[in-house]
Design a protein that fits this description.
It is built from 6 helices and 6 strands, in the order H-E-E-H-E-E-H-E-H-H-H-E. By secondary structure, the chain is of the alpha+beta class. The protein has a single domain (about 15-170), classed as Alpha-Beta Plaits (2-Layer Sandwich). The strands form 2 sheets. Strands 3-4-2-5 form a 4-stranded antiparallel β-sheet. It has a two-stranded antiparallel ribbon with strand order 1-6. Helix 2 runs antiparallel to helix 3 (about 80-100). The longest helix is centred in the middle third of the chain and has 20 residues, at about 80-100. The two termini are about 20 Å apart.
Amino acid sequence: MNLLSLLHARKPRIEYAGAFYHVITRGNQRQKIFKETPDYEKYLQLIASYKQRQHFRLYAYVLMSNHLHLLIETQDVPLSKILQGINQSYTVYFNRKYGNGRPPLPGPLQGHPVRQGTLPSGAPQYIHHNPVRAKVTEVPSRYRWSSDRLYRSAREVTESSIPIRCFACTRRTAPAPGRSMRTS
């Protein structure tokens, strides 16, 4: 292994049940990954399906035309396996629909752990305000492909039964070192 590959090597991600991740997935070469309404709907259907199969919790999401943000709490299934399943399924759908041989989503996972052992207070708001920062809408709840409005109605795919104002006070403890930990 040469020095350049050592400098660019990814550090192993430490994963455990109860870990929170802010996932950012961008289209390859920043291309659109959602072109029409059915594309957004398909991705949300895949999230709901994989939530049932792989038992993760989704606290917030926003789907933009060329990228997406998810706030996920893992349980028994590693984050990389969850996103691999969702994104591979979506890539098959996308390529069948648009006749493109290139995957719309990149291979490497961009899942950033957020404060170990704590549900982050600012993460949902950061995710929900993405369409406002992108000047797509002036009010987060008016953006159709965001979980912001679901917090107000407490339905669909997110764990919206936990109010945003309580995120800062919801404490979870990480497992003891060496217990229920894995790397990917």
